[in-house]
From TrEMBL:
Pfam families: ADC
Top-level taxon of the source organism: Bacteria
Protein name listed in UniProt: Acetoacetate decarboxylase family protein
Amino acid sequence: MFRPDPNKTYRMPPWFGGIDPETTYAYINDCISLDFSFTSDGKWLADFLPEGFELVRPEVSIAFNQLRIDNFLYGGSYNLISVNVPARFRGRQDQLEAQFPLIIWENNTIPILGGREVDGQPKIYADIQDLHFSENTYFTNASYQGNTFLRLQMNNPKPVSQQQLEQAKEAAKNANKFGYRYIPKVGGPGADLIQSTVYPMSMKLTGVWIGEGNFQWTLLPQVYRTQLTNDIDYYNIIKQLATLPVYETKPVSMSAGSLIMKSAESRVLK
Protein backbone atom coordinates (compact mmCIF):
# COMPACT_ATOMS: atom_id res chain seq x y z
CA MET A 1 0.00 0.00 0.00
CA PHE A 2 1.32 3.45 -0.92
CA ARG A 3 1.73 5.86 1.98
CA PRO A 4 3.34 9.27 1.39
CA ASP A 5 6.50 9.92 3.39
CA PRO A 6 5.90 13.22 5.26
CA ASN A 7 9.60 14.06 4.88
CA LYS A 8 9.52 13.95 1.09
CA THR A 9 8.03 16.17 -1.62
CA TYR A 10 5.71 14.55 -4.16
CA ARG A 11 4.15 15.56 -7.45
CA MET A 12 1.10 14.00 -9.06
CA PRO A 13 1.02 11.04 -9.44
CA PRO A 14 2.80 10.53 -6.09
CA TRP A 15 2.97 6.73 -5.89
CA PHE A 16 5.99 6.53 -8.20
CA GLY A 17 8.22 8.16 -5.57
CA GLY A 18 9.10 11.46 -3.94
CA ILE A 19 12.22 13.59 -3.59
CA ASP A 20 14.05 15.19 -0.69
CA PRO A 21 12.99 18.84 -0.23
CA GLU A 22 16.54 20.19 -0.47
CA THR A 23 16.73 19.00 -4.09
CA THR A 24 13.83 21.16 -5.21
CA TYR A 25 15.89 24.26 -6.06
CA ALA A 26 15.74 25.22 -9.73
CA TYR A 27 18.96 26.54 -11.24
CA ILE A 28 18.73 28.42 -14.54
CA ASN A 29 22.21 29.13 -15.83
CA ASP A 30 21.23 31.42 -18.71
CA CYS A 31 18.39 33.90 -18.20
CA ILE A 32 17.50 36.85 -20.43
CA SER A 33 14.68 39.13 -19.30
CA LEU A 34 12.73 42.03 -20.75
CA ASP A 35 10.68 44.23 -18.44
CA PHE A 36 7.97 46.65 -19.58
CA SER A 37 6.33 48.77 -16.89
CA PHE A 38 3.69 51.46 -16.72
CA THR A 39 1.53 53.30 -14.23
CA SER A 40 -2.18 52.54 -14.23
CA ASP A 41 -5.39 52.93 -12.23
CA GLY A 42 -4.67 52.07 -8.59
CA LYS A 43 -8.24 51.08 -7.70
CA TRP A 44 -8.46 48.81 -10.71
CA LEU A 45 -5.21 47.06 -9.79
CA ALA A 46 -6.12 46.79 -6.11
CA ASP A 47 -9.31 44.94 -7.04
CA PHE A 48 -7.19 42.06 -8.38
CA LEU A 49 -5.46 41.49 -5.04
CA PRO A 50 -6.84 38.90 -2.59
CA GLU A 51 -7.55 39.55 1.08
CA GLY A 52 -4.39 40.26 3.08
CA PHE A 53 -2.62 42.05 0.22
CA GLU A 54 -2.51 45.74 -0.62
CA LEU A 55 -1.13 47.62 -3.60
CA VAL A 56 2.17 49.43 -2.95
CA ARG A 57 1.94 51.72 -6.00
CA PRO A 58 -0.20 51.79 -9.16
CA GLU A 59 2.36 50.12 -11.40
CA VAL A 60 2.22 47.13 -13.74
CA SER A 61 5.18 45.11 -14.96
CA ILE A 62 5.02 42.86 -18.03
CA ALA A 63 8.09 40.62 -17.87
CA PHE A 64 9.43 38.19 -20.47
CA ASN A 65 11.96 35.57 -19.35
CA GLN A 66 13.92 33.27 -21.64
CA LEU A 67 15.28 30.50 -19.41
CA ARG A 68 18.04 28.21 -20.66
CA ILE A 69 20.13 25.33 -19.27
CA ASP A 70 17.67 24.50 -16.49
CA ASN A 71 18.70 21.76 -14.08
CA PHE A 72 15.15 20.49 -13.50
CA LEU A 73 14.70 20.12 -17.27
CA TYR A 74 18.06 18.32 -17.68
CA GLY A 75 19.59 21.30 -19.44
CA GLY A 76 16.38 22.14 -21.29
CA SER A 77 14.63 25.47 -21.59
CA TYR A 78 11.34 27.34 -21.58
CA ASN A 79 9.94 30.86 -21.87
CA LEU A 80 7.48 32.76 -19.69
CA ILE A 81 5.60 36.04 -19.63
CA SER A 82 4.22 37.40 -16.37
CA VAL A 83 2.09 40.41 -15.47
CA ASN A 84 2.91 41.68 -11.97
CA VAL A 85 2.02 44.42 -9.50
CA PRO A 86 4.01 45.52 -6.42
CA ALA A 87 2.15 44.39 -3.30
CA ARG A 88 2.42 44.28 0.48
CA PHE A 89 1.17 41.44 2.66
CA ARG A 90 -0.10 42.35 6.11
CA GLY A 91 -0.73 39.26 8.20
CA ARG A 92 -0.75 38.33 11.85
CA GLN A 93 2.94 37.39 11.65
CA ASP A 94 4.23 38.29 8.20
CA GLN A 95 4.74 41.83 6.96
CA LEU A 96 6.59 41.93 3.63
CA GLU A 97 6.64 43.35 0.12
CA ALA A 98 7.16 41.52 -3.18
CA GLN A 99 5.84 41.31 -6.70
CA PHE A 100 2.36 39.80 -6.97
CA PRO A 101 1.92 37.97 -10.30
CA LEU A 102 -1.59 38.38 -11.70
CA ILE A 103 -0.88 35.82 -14.43
CA ILE A 104 2.09 33.79 -15.67
CA TRP A 105 2.08 32.20 -19.13
CA GLU A 106 4.66 29.46 -19.79
CA ASN A 107 5.35 27.24 -22.78
CA ASN A 108 6.35 24.12 -20.83
CA THR A 109 4.02 21.98 -18.71
CA ILE A 110 6.65 20.81 -16.18
CA PRO A 111 7.27 24.22 -14.50
CA ILE A 112 3.55 25.05 -14.76
CA LEU A 113 2.50 22.04 -12.67
CA GLY A 114 5.11 22.54 -9.95
CA GLY A 115 4.53 26.26 -9.65
CA ARG A 116 0.74 25.94 -9.49
CA GLU A 117 0.33 22.97 -7.16
CA VAL A 118 3.12 23.67 -4.69
CA ASP A 119 3.83 27.40 -4.73
CA GLY A 120 0.53 28.98 -5.71
CA GLN A 121 1.85 30.69 -8.84
CA PRO A 122 -0.94 31.61 -11.33
CA LYS A 123 0.53 29.70 -14.27
CA ILE A 124 -1.23 28.73 -17.47
CA TYR A 125 -0.01 27.62 -20.89
CA ALA A 126 0.74 29.75 -23.95
CA ASP A 127 2.94 29.47 -27.03
CA ILE A 128 5.79 31.94 -26.39
CA GLN A 129 8.43 32.64 -29.00
CA ASP A 130 12.14 32.80 -28.23
CA LEU A 131 13.58 36.30 -28.19
CA HIS A 132 14.35 37.42 -31.75
CA PHE A 133 16.81 40.10 -32.81
CA SER A 134 17.03 42.24 -35.95
CA GLU A 135 18.60 45.65 -36.58
CA ASN A 136 19.04 46.48 -32.88
CA THR A 137 15.47 45.45 -32.08
CA TYR A 138 14.45 42.59 -29.80
CA PHE A 139 10.96 41.13 -30.03
CA THR A 140 8.79 38.18 -29.07
CA ASN A 141 5.12 37.27 -28.86
CA ALA A 142 2.68 34.99 -27.06
CA SER A 143 -0.25 33.18 -28.64
CA TYR A 144 -3.11 30.85 -27.74
CA GLN A 145 -4.66 28.36 -30.18
CA GLY A 146 -2.81 30.06 -33.04
CA ASN A 147 -3.92 33.58 -32.07
CA THR A 148 -1.25 36.09 -31.01
CA PHE A 149 -2.47 38.02 -27.97
CA LEU A 150 0.67 39.89 -26.85
CA ARG A 151 3.68 41.29 -28.69
CA LEU A 152 6.73 42.72 -26.92
CA GLN A 153 9.44 44.83 -28.57
CA MET A 154 12.57 46.61 -27.35
CA ASN A 155 14.60 49.02 -29.50
CA ASN A 156 18.16 50.36 -29.27
CA PRO A 157 19.24 48.91 -25.90
CA LYS A 158 22.13 50.72 -24.19
CA PRO A 159 24.12 49.39 -21.22
CA VAL A 160 23.46 51.14 -17.90
CA SER A 161 26.24 52.83 -15.90
CA GLN A 162 28.40 50.79 -13.55
CA GLN A 163 26.65 52.36 -10.57
CA GLN A 164 23.22 51.45 -11.94
CA LEU A 165 24.42 47.92 -12.66
CA GLU A 166 25.62 47.46 -9.09
CA GLN A 167 22.29 48.74 -7.74
CA ALA A 168 20.42 46.35 -10.01
CA LYS A 169 22.62 43.44 -8.91
CA GLU A 170 21.83 44.14 -5.27
CA ALA A 171 18.07 44.42 -5.89
CA ALA A 172 18.01 41.18 -7.91
CA LYS A 173 19.32 39.15 -4.98
CA ASN A 174 15.78 39.15 -3.54
CA ALA A 175 13.46 38.72 -6.52
CA ASN A 176 10.69 37.18 -4.41
CA LYS A 177 7.15 36.65 -5.67
CA PHE A 178 3.90 36.26 -3.81
CA GLY A 179 1.52 33.44 -4.64
CA TYR A 180 -2.08 32.48 -3.98
CA ARG A 181 -2.73 28.76 -3.73
CA TYR A 182 -6.36 28.10 -4.68
CA ILE A 183 -7.35 24.43 -4.92
CA PRO A 184 -10.96 24.11 -6.12
CA LYS A 185 -13.33 21.73 -4.38
CA VAL A 186 -13.92 18.48 -6.25
CA GLY A 187 -17.26 18.85 -7.99
CA GLY A 188 -17.46 22.47 -6.79
CA PRO A 189 -18.40 25.07 -6.01
CA GLY A 190 -15.84 26.64 -3.69
CA ALA A 191 -12.32 25.70 -2.66
CA ASP A 192 -10.74 22.96 -0.59
CA LEU A 193 -7.66 25.10 0.09
CA ILE A 194 -6.81 28.81 -0.08
CA GLN A 195 -3.34 29.96 1.02
CA SER A 196 -1.24 33.06 0.47
CA THR A 197 2.40 32.16 -0.19
CA VAL A 198 5.80 33.65 -0.87
CA TYR A 199 8.21 32.13 -3.40
CA PRO A 200 11.87 33.18 -2.86
CA MET A 201 14.06 33.72 -5.92
CA SER A 202 17.46 35.23 -6.54
CA MET A 203 19.07 36.44 -9.74
CA LYS A 204 22.78 37.00 -10.35
CA LEU A 205 23.02 39.71 -13.00
CA THR A 206 25.84 40.01 -15.51
CA GLY A 207 24.40 42.89 -17.54
CA VAL A 208 21.54 45.38 -17.73
CA TRP A 209 20.44 47.49 -20.71
CA ILE A 210 17.85 50.26 -21.10
CA GLY A 211 15.97 51.08 -24.28
CA GLU A 212 12.73 52.12 -25.89
CA GLY A 213 9.95 49.72 -26.68
CA ASN A 214 6.30 48.85 -26.57
CA PHE A 215 3.82 46.11 -25.81
CA GLN A 216 0.69 45.39 -27.81
CA TRP A 217 -2.31 43.36 -26.69
CA THR A 218 -4.69 41.73 -29.16
CA LEU A 219 -8.02 40.36 -27.95
CA LEU A 220 -8.81 36.77 -28.80
CA PRO A 221 -11.60 36.06 -31.32
CA GLN A 222 -15.15 36.18 -29.97
CA VAL A 223 -15.46 32.37 -30.15
CA TYR A 224 -13.27 32.11 -27.03
CA ARG A 225 -15.83 33.99 -24.95
CA THR A 226 -17.72 30.74 -24.36
CA GLN A 227 -16.39 29.15 -21.19
CA LEU A 228 -16.34 25.36 -21.24
CA THR A 229 -16.39 23.12 -18.18
CA ASN A 230 -13.03 23.22 -16.37
CA ASP A 231 -11.70 25.60 -19.02
CA ILE A 232 -9.45 28.59 -18.29
CA ASP A 233 -11.05 31.83 -19.44
CA TYR A 234 -8.23 33.09 -21.67
CA TYR A 235 -10.50 35.59 -23.38
CA ASN A 236 -11.52 37.33 -20.15
CA ILE A 237 -7.98 37.33 -18.71
CA ILE A 238 -6.54 38.99 -21.81
CA LYS A 239 -9.44 41.43 -22.12
CA GLN A 240 -9.04 42.68 -18.54
CA LEU A 241 -5.28 43.15 -18.91
CA ALA A 242 -5.54 44.73 -22.36
CA THR A 243 -8.03 47.34 -21.14
CA LEU A 244 -5.96 48.49 -18.15
CA PRO A 245 -5.34 52.25 -18.43
CA VAL A 246 -1.77 53.15 -19.41
CA TYR A 247 -0.92 56.54 -17.90
CA GLU A 248 2.84 56.59 -18.25
CA THR A 249 5.34 54.07 -19.56
CA LYS A 250 8.90 53.65 -18.32
CA PRO A 251 11.99 52.75 -20.36
CA VAL A 252 12.23 49.07 -21.21
CA SER A 253 14.97 47.15 -19.39
CA MET A 254 16.79 44.02 -20.49
CA SER A 255 18.90 41.94 -18.13
CA ALA A 256 21.06 38.85 -18.40
CA GLY A 257 22.39 36.46 -15.78
CA SER A 258 21.48 33.31 -13.88
CA LEU A 259 18.48 32.54 -11.69
CA ILE A 260 17.77 30.39 -8.64
CA MET A 261 14.15 29.55 -7.86
CA LYS A 262 14.03 28.39 -4.23
CA SER A 263 10.93 26.23 -4.12
CA ALA A 264 12.24 24.48 -1.01
CA GLU A 265 12.01 27.81 0.84
CA SER A 266 8.47 28.67 -0.27
CA ARG A 267 6.08 29.02 2.64
CA VAL A 268 2.55 29.88 3.60
CA LEU A 269 2.09 33.44 4.83
CA LYS A 270 0.39 34.02 8.15
